[in-house]
Amino acid sequence: MDEASLAGRVEQARQFLSQLHAIDRSLLAAGDQLNYDIFGRELEMQIQEFDFGLQYMPISRLSGFQIYLPDLSLQTPFDTLADYEAYLQRLQGFGTYFSDHIHLMRRGIELGLLPSRTALSGVEKTISGQITADPAASLFYQPFVQLPPAFTPQDQARLRQTARQAITETVVPAYQALLDFVEQEYLPAARTAIAAASLPNGAAYYAYCVRRYTTLAVSPSEVHEIGMDEVQRIRGEMDTLIRQTGFSGGFKDFLQFLRTDPRFYVDTPETLMKEVAWIMKRMEGELPRLFKKLPRTPFGMRQIPDYLAPNSTSAYYFPLSGDGKTAGFYYVNTYDLKSRPLYEYEALSFHEAVPGHHLQLALQTEMQSVPNFRRFTDVTAFIEGWALYAERLGLEVGFYQDPYSNFGRLTYEIWRACRLVVDTGMHALGWSRQQAIDFMAENSGLSLLNIANEVDRYIAWPGQALAYKMGELKIRELRQFAEQTLGERFDIREFHAQLLQNGSIPLDALEERIRAWANN
Predict the structure, then answer these.
(1) Which helix (H) or strand (E) holds 101?
(2) Among 79, 246, 341, 359, whose Cα sits 20 to 30 Å from the Cα of 386?
């Protein structure tokens, strides 16, 4: 991760892009034209992010190598002796890997390319949790707790001894060096401003973020206005639903009731996990009504680790492995259970697992007729737009019967609409962090803890949060077009097959294909 290596990889990307542009796209078959477009887009993003200097800002409280590396053992095969030895070699490389990143961040300080202090608040906890006196207590030691019985006692003893030594002599010192650097140099130097526009060339950078994450030619101000219109529309539906429950107070009173009434909360993490599992099992039985093809790879559920939970959102999805040997996982946050209302979990689960992220990403990973890079392409507007669209699908197969659960669905929808407003507000239009929190508190039923974590996520990750609602709006627009064009011939299962058959693709490419299919 040193500067010369990064520059070399980007120069290679420039050469690939030049080679790509030398190909006459018009001579390619339709499938290869899509490969051409997506590969070119991936290369352009890699080059642009390097030119904007994102390599100098590799960590925040919510993301970065210090967070992802403890999950290394969950993504690594452990079938053979060579697998374990390869993992040990990776642990032994932590010293160089961390020192390279520290050098990049020092260079970022010199260039003024730094995260905001808000984005870094709490980052120390994501580092200090991996600094353990006992190597056997480290997350990095987990693969060695129970080794395959086929390994000889001598090999088992050697692997465990080498692991303990690597953790003690390399992994822990690397995390300690990072913690010292962050506390002594990085946090004091961090930007006090929250806006991406306050970075060098920041206005152009944020405009790029909007284009990248929405895959649409829209400006920050246009996205802001779309968000305001959506918030107004969804608020009207929420107000109607409140009246239907018989609640006598206003919107703020109803939110206070939802945030404080004990009926909506559980007392133990185990109870929450069981409630969520029951929702998921019921939805799995309804999937054939909506889809012609289902993924072969299953998903599981896990609690978000303790070292991440306080600064994490309510849930997230961790994808399956490309070789099909590891399932996808739906991670549920069980920290601060009084901030985890049950009425949110139908919408949340449909988004993160099925029919949302797991179903779509598993089908994409299992595609056999496309180049490998397409199986792992991450077009956020499609992936997150689909997952938000998937929340609404629960209405079509009998969920959200409880009005509070339906209110929870609307809360999640308005949350994504609020993102259009507050992300552009903070990064382009001069909004403060408190303005963003207040706007979301006034217009959504999210807990105040979740709202604060969400706003800080938008500060740390400019533009990413725009993908959800912009993607969902495009998918709903295309569904409406297909329904009107096909009339009685419209089949929801075939529509979903058309949507999902190419994996995640930019929204303009999706629109071209859906309109051609419906008009055929």
Answers:
(1) helix 94-111
(2) 341
